[in-house]
Amino acid sequence: MTRLAVSESASSHAPQGDTPPGADEGDAAPLWRPAPPAPGSVESRIAEVRVKLHPRSVSGTFAHWRIVFVVLTQLVFYGLPWVQWEGRQAVLFDLAARKFYLFGLVLWPQDVVYLAVLLVISALALFLFTAVAGRLFCGYACPQTVYTEIFMWIERRIEGDRLARIRLDEAPWNARKIRLKLSKHALWILLAWWTGSTFIGYFAPIRDLGEQLFTLQLGPWQWFWMLFYGFATWGNAGFMRESVCKYMCPYARFQSVMVDRDTFVVTYDHKRGEPRGGRSRKVDHRGAGMGDCVDCSLCVQVCPTGIDIRDGLQYMCIGCGACIDACAQVMDKMQYPKGLIRYTSDRAIADGLDARATRRRLWRPRVLVYGAAIGLLAVGFVVSLALRSPLRVDVVRDRNVLAREVAGGLIENIYRLQFINTSNEPLTLQLAADGLPGLSVRTVPEDRQEVRVPPSSNLLVPVVVRAPTDAGTPGSHPIQFVLRSAPGQSGAQLDLHEAASFYLPQ
Ligand code: SF4
Ligand code: SF4
């Protein structure tokens, strides 16, 4: 069994309050903890869920990247609904009108295939990133990680770092504890409410929501989703945290089939680190038969999911790299080379590959297949959008009136034309029909041969088609509606042909 096999027996019971060698917080007396239940037992699983983690803050390269991604993703999430495009909200999923606005693009329910392709591309991209570098999405862009980071940042500002929080949680309730907890929850709830409000701003014009909110004119569904999403944010990022990643997220469970021995994952170099143990900086640890790991447990203390990466890759690891940053600081202090915990592959550690050989092994069939599939789908998506007709027409026969004779020796059939203008420009169309001699088309009741379809709208237009009684033999005849852009119409020149049938009675 390779070390990449998903392990559930990781040591997630690392001591929370012990004093690590190499720690710079001045953490003094170890805090006593009751003996944990037997590993693997039901009690230990339940205890794991209940135990509140107090991850220690850490700085370093990966911590900086996490901050960058938190800021970027939140700028997009909170800012996007406020962006205007051609006089309307740039991104709006208008469920009531069944229209999705994406900047210059207006998608209708008939365009669901585009959304499906986008979802497939996103899923393949997730598979690709996972095959290349494990759970990059989880560590840096997953909403659960991002909001947990923000909520923990607020918590640290108010309650202090790890040891201060542990002490506060264990202290009896007093005025200071109540004040700190109230302040923290007030800020959490404010942020959660803002998040919920922004969320519904993707489904209803956000500029109207503020006024509707303060005048209590939101609809019941808007209230529900704002409170539900806000409550979920508060609960998941404030309380559930790593439990969502460990026990609720399906991606965590099937990642093991997407990574292999060449995937870059956060890895403890056990060859270099073992045997682990405390020592003085001056000791020649190699001479004493020791590895580079000083067993300070800092990598465990900073881990947001509370696992020990030295037990090998585990499904609970979200690939955030916090343990890499923490261990790099310890290595610096001990004047050992960095990289005892690093992004590398299982094969690189096992076979002692250098960085270049490890990177070369990234180009393997599954990566190339995922990349090619994403490329093909992306090209097809863009080409299909570029060639998409701005007008859709559906012809529906009026079933109540099959055919009737009217003045002038003519037979009349009635249809309804359903126009969908997916562009942001009005479209003016000239109507005609061919397939039988002497066919004419007029709109009802305007009696015109021209139709104007407003931008981003659908329009149902009744039309009558007339033909001389002697235009053909009795029965049904195939005809087609011809819809052309009116002279002077700007933009794409349309020439659509829609099949229909014309009935000539006996
Ligand atoms: S791997 Fe690094 S951070 Fe973790 S216990 Fe060993 S020396 Fe400390
Ligand atoms: S083991 Fe390291 S990379 Fe994995 S979740 Fe914990 S801190 Fe993040």
UniProtKB/TrEMBL annotation:
A cellular component term (GO) from this record? plasma membrane
Q: According to the UniProt record, where is the region Disordered?
A: 1-39
Whether Electron transport counts among this entry's keywords is: yes
The record lists the membrane-crossing segments as: 63-83, 114-138, 186-203, 223-240, 367-387
MF GO annotations: 4 iron, 4 sulfur cluster binding; metal ion binding
Q: Which PANTHER family match?
A: FERREDOXIN-TYPE PROTEIN NAPH
Name of the featured protein: Cytochrome c oxidase accessory protein CcoG
**Entries under InterPro entries matching the protein:** 4Fe4S_Fe-S-bd, 4Fe4S_Fe_S_CS, Cyt_c_oxidase_cbb3_FixG, Electron_Trans/Redox, FixG_C, Ig-like_fold
- Where does the record place the 4Fe-4S ferredoxin-type domain? 305-339
Q: Which UniProt keywords apply?
A: 4Fe-4S, Electron transport, Iron, Iron-sulfur, Membrane, Metal-binding, Transmembrane, Transmembrane helix, Transport
